[in-house]
Amino acid sequence: MISKGRDVSEFFPDVVKNVVSQNIEIRKLVYIYLLRYAEQEPDLALLSINTFQKDLGDKNQIIRAMALRVMSGIRVPVISPIVLLGIKKCVADMSPYVRKTAAHAIPKCYSLDPTQEDSLIEIISGLLKDRSAITIGSTIMAFNEVCPTRFDLIHSYYRKLCNMLTDLDEWGQIAVLDLLLRYGRNQFTDPNPNGIKVPKAVTSSNTKNESFYSDSSDEESTEEVEEQSEDEVEDVELDEDHSLLIKSCLPLLQSRNSGVVMAVARIYFHLAPSEEASQLAKPLVRLLRSHRELQYVILTNIATMACSRPYLFHGYLSQFYVRSTDSVFIRNTKLDILTAIVTEQNINSILGELQQYVKSPNKDFVASTIQAIGKCAMTVPETADRCMKGLMKLLKSTNDLVVAESVSVIKRLLQIRGNENTQSIIRLAKLLDKTTVPVARANIFWLVGQYTENISAAAPDILRKGVKGFTDEHDVVKYQILTLSAKLTCLNPSHETISLLNQYVLNLARYDQNYDIRDRARLLRSLTLPYSAQAEKSGSNDDSHVLSSHLKQILLSDKEPPVLESDMQDRTEYTLGSLSMMVKHSLPGYEPIPDYPQEQPDPSVRDVEEDFWNSVGQARIVEQGFGSDSFESRYRDGSGRSPASTAFSSVEARGYNVVHSQTPKAKKNGEDYDLEAFYNDTSEEEEALSSEDSEATTSEEDSEEEDEDEEESEEESDDLDAAAEKRPLRR
Amino acid sequence: MINSLFVVNGQGKIIIEKHWRSIISRQIVDVFSDESAKFLASGPINHTASNSDKNAKEVSFTKEDVPPILETSKYLLLHVLRDGLVWLCPVDKEVDPLLVFEMIHRIIDILVDYLGDVSEVSIRDNFVIVYQLLEEMMDYGYPLTTEPNALKQIILPPTIMNKVMNTVVAASGVGQKLPQSTMSSIPWRKAGVKYAQNEIYFDIIEEIDATIEANGAIVSCEAHGTVNVNCRLSGMPDLALNFINHRILDDVSFHPCVRYQKWESDKVLSFVPPDGHFSLMSYRVNLPPQQLLPLHVKPQFYNTATGGKFDISINPRSTDGKPIEKVVVTIPMSKNTTTVNATCNVGQYMYDPVTKSIKWEISKIQVRDRTPMLSGTYSNGSATHETGTTIMLQFQISMYAVSGLKVDTLRLFREGYKPYKGVRSVTKAGKFQIRA
Fold first, then answer.
1. Where is the MHD domain (chain B) (predicted)?
2. What is the pTM of this model?
C-alpha cells in the first residue's frame, strides 16, 4: 500500500503495537512502516522507543544494529538525546557491525538535532580509533557529513587510513578517498615552512605546477630541490605522507567499483605529481565497458580531463570511437573527447574515423560529427584542406541539416584561413542554385559579401540571383542579401547595376512583412544611398561624408573568427567526478576542493602513535597478500573479545617492526621464497595448534586464525632471519 | 547521498518508493516523465535554431537516449533504465554521481541474485523481500551492506523452503529462528559454510569488441573477459589461482576479495572466495591486429534508384576446430525500405518491417562447411537512399578463449579437503560491428 502511494498512516497505532512481535519478519515490516510515517505521528512513535531500547541489549548483533538503525531513523526531534545515548552505547559494542550502524546513526542524529554536534564529534573521534575496517568507512561518512573540515581529528589517523584503504569496503573507500583528497589539499603544500628561503624560481614553478599540473616538472623534483637547498627533516616527512597516500590508493584503481576508481582518479588528478597521473587513464578506459549510465559519467569526466591534459588519453584513441549502438549522449561525449585529444600525430586516424561517421544514417549525429571535424581542423590547421574537401563533398547531401551544418563549419574555417579561399567561395556560390536550406544560403551570401574583394567578378552576379528570389527567401537569407548588396555598393559606388540592384532590394525590403527587415533596410538605405547619390553629384556634404568614409569600415571590418569552445571547458573548474561538474553549476552542498595552503601545516601532527601504525602499515606492504588476514586480526583486537588481544597486538607490532627494519632484505627474500611450502607449513602448524588449543573462546575458528596470524607475523620475521626450515625448531 | 529511490515501470507507474532521508513527493516521477517526454519530443538538438522544424522530426529518440542526468528546477533526476524499469533517484545536493549509479546497479544485481530476475512481476511478488533489502542495503542514504553473502545472512532468499517455513511459523505463532548471530569477519563470506561435496568452477567468458571496415580493415579490436566463479567450498578456504600467461592481460579489475599486493608482486590471484556465484575478475586484452578474428563477414551493397542488391558472406576462420555457434547477423536497413527478398544457403533469415532490419540466424558454423551466404534485393519507397549501415554480429564459441588465457593451477590452503575444480571458457561477440 505504501508503494501504491496511499497514505496509510491511520493504522499507525495498530501497526506500532506489533513492534514487540516475536516474528522478526513482521518486526522488520513494522520498522519499515515506522520509518515511513513516524514523522507524521511523533507522539505515537514514541511508544515504540521502549522496545528499541530493550532491543539494544539483545544478544543478537543484528537485532541490536536494527534497533539502533530504526530508532535513529525515526525523525522525531524529541528523542534525539535517547538516540545519542543509544549511539554511545553501540559505539562501545564489540560487534563491528553494530559499531558500523552506530556510525551511520551519527549523521541522522545530527540532522535531527544539530545542537548535539559537540558530543557527536566526540563520538566520531572515538570511532576513528576503531581498528576494524568495517566501521572505519562509515565513520568517515559520518565525519564528512557532520564535521567535514575538522582535519585536526584526522591527523593522528591519517597513516592508518592510508594503510587500511585496501581493506575497506567499496563505499567506505569512496568516502575515505574523498576525505583524503580534501585533507591532502589542506595539509600538503609546496611552499614549505621554509618557503621563503627557497629560491624564487623554484617556488613559482612549484605553485604553478600545483595549480595547473600542466608542467612536466613534478612536485617531487621540486621537493628534492628544496631538500637539497636546506636539509629539513619536515620536508622528508611531508614527502613520505604525501606519497604514502598516492601509493596506497594505487591498487584501488583495480577495483570493480567505478566510484572507487573515479575517486582514486580524482586524487591522482588533483593531488598527485603530474607524472603519476598517467596511471589513471587505463582503468578509466576500462570502465567504459560498464552500464551506459556509468559510461556517460566517466566519459564526461574523461572529456573534462582531456581538456586540460589531453596527453593522458592519447594512447586510448580507439576506445573513444563511436559504435552505432551507443546512445546519443554517449556519442556526443565521445566526439567531444576525440576533438579534445586531437594532435598532429593522430589527426589522420581521427579524421578517417569521423568521415565514417558522416555516412551514418542518423543525421543528428552527422551534424555533430561535422562540428567535430571543424574543431579538428581548427586545432590542427595543417589538415584544414582535407577537412574542407570532405565537407565540400557533404554539401551534395540531400539532408538539409547536414548541408546547413557543413556550410556553417566551412564558413568558420574560411574565416580562419583568411584570403586564400576564392575557389571555395565560388564553389559554394554555385551551390546557391541547389541549396534550399535557409541557414546555408544565408551563410553563403555572408561569405560572398565578406570576401567580395577576392571574387569581385562573380559577386554582382550572385547578388543578382539573390535579389531575384528575394521575396521568397527566408528571413535569415534576406538579411544577408541586404548586407551583401550594401557591401557591394560600398565597394563599387560607381557601378550602375549594383546601385540599381541595391535600390531595388531596399525597396523590396521596405515593404517586407518582418519589421526587423524593414529596420535593417532603413539603416542600410541611409548608409548606402546618400553615398551613391553623392558619388553621382560629387557634392561635399561633410556630415554624410564622415559616415560614408567609414562605411567600408563599418560594413567590411574583419570579423573575428569565432572561438570554438567545448562545453567541457567550463567543467574543468569543478572537482572531477562531482555532480556539479556534470551539470556545470554548483549544487547545494558542493564545495570546491580547497587550494593548497600557503603555509605548511605542521607535519608532525600525524606523528602520533607513529611507530605503531607505521610499522603495521609498512609490514603489510612487505607482507603483500595477507591484507585480509591482518585485517581480521585487527578486527578481533578491536572487538576486544579475546583477552590476549593487547598482548597479541604488541607481538604483532614487534614482529612487524622487525620486518620493517629489514625491508630491503625482506623483499629480496620474498622473491625466491617458496610460497607453497610456507602455506603448507602454516596449515600443518594450524592443525597442531588447534588440537592443542583448548581455550574456550567464542569460536574455535577464531582462535585458530588468530594463532595463525600470530604465526604469520612471527614467520615473517623468521623468514627474514633465515630459511623457513628453522621455524619448526624454534617451536 | 541517496535520498530516495523510485522504481517506475514502462507506463510511468511507481512500483516501489523508498525514502532513506526525508520524503520526496511522488510528484517527482511525473516531473520525470514530463522531462523525458519533452526530451523525446525535442528530437535532435537543433544547432541552428532557426532551422525549419520539418528537419527536426526526422530522427526520433528512443528511451535509451534520455541522458541519465536530467535537470529540473529543484532536483536533479539521476536515473537508470534497466530491463524496462526506470530506477530514479532525485538528488538536490552534491553527490558523487558514480556512487549513485553504481549503487542502483548494485541494488539491481542483488535483486537479480535474490529473485532470479528483476521485473515488475517479480518485484510485486516479493515486496517484503525487496523492501527489507532496500532497508538493509542503505542506511540514511549511505550504502550499508552490499555483499550478497552478508545480506543472505540477514535476509533469507525467497526459496520455496523458506516460504513454507514462514507460513508454518506464522500460523503456529512460534517465534522464528533468528538469523545466525555470528557474522563472518570477512564481509564477503558467510561463516560456517558446509558442503558435502566441495567444488569450484571457473568460467572464463571473453567478449570480442571489434569494429571492422567494409573492406575488412580492423578499426578497433579487443577482448574483454570476466572470470565468473561458482564456489561451493566449505569453511574458510584460501585460494591461489595461477595463470599460464598472465602477461597478455592488459588491464584487470578484481572482486574485493582479491589481495592486490599479491597480484602486484607475484601475479597470483590470492583470495578467500565468497560463497556461491561471483565475478572474480574482469580484464581487457588487446588483440594483436594480425590475430585473425574467428569470423570474417563480407558485406556488399549495390544501390540502385529504387532499391538495391546485397550480398553477405561469412567466412569462418580458425578456432582450434571448435564450431561457431549461435551466429546472428543483424542488418539494419534504411528507414524507407519497403520490401526485402533474400535467400540464404544456411540458417534462416527474417525481415522485421517494424524495426526495418534483417536478422539472419545460423545455429552452427564449422570451418569445413561451405561458406554461409545471404543475398537478396530490397526496394525503397523513395529514391533517396542512405549509406552507412552497420551490421551487428553475435556468435559464441565454447571451450575457446580468444585471448588464449589459461588457468595454470589452483591451490587451496587452510582447509583439509581436496576440492573438485573445473575451468570452462567461452568466447562471445560483444559489440562486433561491421561497417557496410
1. 197-435
2. 0.75
